[in-house]
Amino acid sequence: MKPKVFIDGEAGTTGLQIRERLAPRGDLELLAIDPAKRKDPTARAALMDAAAAVVLCLPDAEAREAVKLVTNPATKVIDASTAHRVADGWVFGFPEMGRGQRDLIRSAKRVANLGCWATGAIALLRPLVEAGALARDQVVSIHGVSGYSGGGKGMITEFENPADPTYTKEPYRIYGLELAHKHLPEIQKYAGLSTKPMFSPSVGRYAQGMLVEVPLFLAHLKSVSSPAAVHAILADAYPGERFVDVVPLETCRALKTLAPEDLNGTNRMKLFVFGSESQVRLVAQLDNLGKGASGAAVQNLNLMLGLDEAAGLS
Question: Would residue 252 show up in a list of annotated catalytic residues for this protein?
Answer without folding.
Answer: no
